[in-house]
Amino acid sequence: MNNELEKYTNQIIQGDCLELFKDIPDNLVDMTFADPPFNLKKKYTSYNDSLEFQEYLNWCEQWISEMVRVTKPTGSISLHNIPKWLTYYATFLNKFAHFKHWISWDAPTAPMGKSLQPAHYGILFYGKETKGTKIHELRYPHKRDRKQGFLLKDYGGKKDKLHPFGPLVSDVWTDIHRIKHNKKRDPHPCQLPIHLLDRLILLSTDEGDIVLDPFSGTGTTAISAKRLGRKYIGFELDAEYVEISKIKLEVVEPNFKLDKSWVSFYLNDLITIRDKDWNKLKEYFIVPEPMRTIDYKKTVLKDKKLIPKEKEVIYEVNNICKIDETRKNGKVIKQIETIKIDANNDFKSERKVVI
Ligand SMILES: C[S@@+](CC[C@H](N)C(=O)[O-])C[C@H]1O[C@@H](n2cnc3c(N)ncnc32)[C@H](O)[C@@H]1O
Question: Which of 48, 95, 98, 264 is in Cβ range 3.0-4.6 Å of 272 for a Cys bridge?
C-alpha cells in the first residue's frame, strides 16, 4: 500500500470531511461510498440537516469532487440518497466519472406529500474511468414464500437450469431490509444495514482494498470493510458517532469468509456471494437433488457452525439518553458507558469506556 495513505487507513477520523479530504492524495482509494445527510431535517447530534436547496447542492458538489479525486482509476464511486438528490448528483458526476449503474434499493422512505409513495433509495454507482472499473458478478439466495418455502418467481419448466445458490444480483435490491429493531440500531437517525454495504464492497473491491466513507455515521461501511478483509477510512463530524464506531470496530473480526471466499452473512444465512466463488463454495452446501426440487427445497449450508457468530455491542439505553440531555443543556460531561459484548445473545463480557 502507498505509504502516504497508510497513516489514515483502518481509522475513523473525527472532523469535517471537506477538511479531512485535503490530506488524502489523489488516485489511491479503491472504493468511495457516501451516505450523506439527505437535507430532510433529521436529528443528527452535530449537523444541521436543513440547508437551503442550492446551498445543499453546492456543498454536495464539493465532497463528490473529492471522492472522485481520491478514487483509483480502477475504482468506483457510490452515492446513496433519495432519487430527488441523485438526479442532481448524476448531472454533476457525469462530467468527471463514468456511469455504471443506478441501483434501486427497495426500502420504504419518508412520504413526500400527495404523490406516489416513495419506496426506494438510489445508489449511483460510477467508475472513475470509462473502462477497467473493478466490478464482480454477485449472487443472492432465491426468493421464497415465507410459509411454504416455494420459489416466489415462477420459472416454469426451467427449474433444472437454475443456479443452486440463487440469481445474479441485478440493479434492483429487494432482499435487504432497513434495520427494524431498535435493539439492533445505534443512537443514530439513519444507520444503514451492514449487509447493504457488504454487497457494494463485494461488488467492487478485493481483499486488502481500501474503502473510504466521508460520512461514516456509526461506522457501517468500516465494519463491513473490516469483516470482509478490506481496509477502511471513515470521516465523521460527530465525536460520539466516532466513539461508537471505534467501540464496534474493536469487536469486529475479518471473518466473513467460507474457506477462502469472502461472503456476506446475515441472520444465520448467506446473503451475497461472488459468482466466481461458487465452484469453491458449493462443497459447503447441500444442493437439492434432483435440481427441479429446488422449487421447494433450499440450498443449505452443511454446517451452520461455519457462520461466524456476530458479536453484538449493546449500549445502555439510559446512558445514551443522558448524553443527549446533557448536550441540550449545553453541558459537556464525561460519562462511563457500559458495553456488553454479546455473542449469540449470551452475556459474555463487560467493559467500560469513556465517551
Ligand atoms: C446519513 S448519515 C450516515 C450514516 C452511516 N451510513 C451509518 O450507517 O451509520 C450522515 C452522517 O454524516 C455526518 N456528517 C454531516 N456532515 C458532515 C461533514 N461535513 N463531515 C463528516 N461527516 C458529516 C453526520 O453526523 C451523520 O452521521
Answer: 264
Look at residue 109 and give its three-state secondary structure.
coil
Convert the pLDDT of each residue in 115-166 to its tens digit. Answer: 788 889 999 999 999 999 999 999 999 999 988 889 988 887 788 889 999 9
Q: Which pLDDT tens digit goes with each residue over 40-65?
A: 776 666 667 677 889 999 999 999 99
3-134+168-270 — its CATH code? 3.40.50.150
Quote the strand ranges of 182-268, DSSP E: 210-213, 231-236, 257-258, 261-262, 264-266
The response to whether residue 171 sits with its C-beta less than 6 Å from ligand 1 reads no
In 289-335 the beta strands, taken as DSSP E runs, fall at 300-301, 311-315
Pocket test for ligand 1, best of 216, 223, 235 (most atoms within 8 A of CB): 216
The finding on whether 17 has its CB within 6 A of some atom of ligand 1 is yes
Rounded CA-CA distance 34/255 in Å is: 24
Task: Find the 315 Cα to ligand 1 centroid distance in Å.
Answer: 20
Q: What is the pTM of this model?
A: 0.87
Question: Of all protein residues, whose CA lies closest to atom 9 belonging to ligand 1?
Answer: 217
Distance CA 349, CA 343 (A): 9
The residue ranges of every structural domain in the chain are 3-134+168-270, 311-354
Nearest CA to ligand 1 atom 4: 217
